[in-house]
Amino acid sequence: MVTPAIKFTNLSLEQRRKWFGLFISLPAVVTIFSTIFYPLMLGIVSSFQQVRLTQLSDTPWIGFDNYVKLFNDRYFWNALKNTAIFTTVWTFGAALIGLLAAVLLNRENRSNRFIAGMLLIPWILPPVAVAFIFRTMASSRNGIINEVLLNFGLITRALKFFESPDMVGASVIGATMWIAFPFFMAMLLAGLKTIPQDIIEASTIDGANAWQRFLYITLPSLKGVIVISTTLSVVWGFNFFDLIYTVSKGGPLSRSETFVILAQRMAFDQADVGYTAALGVVWLLLLLVASYTYLRQMKVMS
Fold this sequence. Notes:
- The chain has helices spanning 13-46, 65-71, 74-104, 110-119, 121-124, 127-137, 144-151, 168-193, 197-205, 210-221, 223-238, 242-247, 259-269, 273-301.
- The chain is mainly α.
- Helix 2 (65-71) crosses helix 14, helix 3 (74-104) runs antiparallel to helix 11 (223-238) and helix 11 packs antiparallel against helix 14 (273-301).
- The longest helix has 34 residues, at 13-46.
- The termini are far apart.
């Protein structure tokens, strides 16, 4: 007679703990595999196939043809340029504004807590709602921004912020910075609370002024928070879709088209899933290289 599998009751306490740990982690492992690793592997495989949204049953293997098409596509290089510029500018712009707000609000009183709570509103609002707010405010017909500029004599005619190819990039960056700076403010404000007051008081006694305390104590103490928040912002910026699509859909003349807008257009408007999968693979590699390089550079500076 074949001996049955080892009974759970015959296991030692340490073995029971290991098997119980594997058992309770199994749902999480299955969920992560089905929602992250399986779609990732499917996307990588699809990048080497000719996959059309209208012919999902017929997916011949075409090797690197999608990547050749991708690197020869001027829209890809345009999206790469826009994504890099937009993400860099709004990340560091929002970080500077958030740092300034955090330093100014780094005092425990009721008014500062109220102001900090109010400043979190742009981060809480859905990006689509922010997009409609900015489109309304920046309208060339009766938008409040144009009305103020005209009344102060700063412009002679209404500006088309989101309709002009020359202005849409700066307009998108400005709107996105308004959404992103509360995130940096909250992160940096939390980091400021961890700086020991004894160090600040000792530096003041030694004769350090406010700028010296900020430069040699505050910034070095916030380096870890800055690295984490800016890295998260870069990843978020590469995947940012709602606001850009709502205000301009990547136009006019593709001046505001980023990776995510190009991927949406190629997948659903052109039905070219293989091209989109190749774009996604390159997109992922760029994010990994950028994050690794940035984190390594910050480690060297420490």
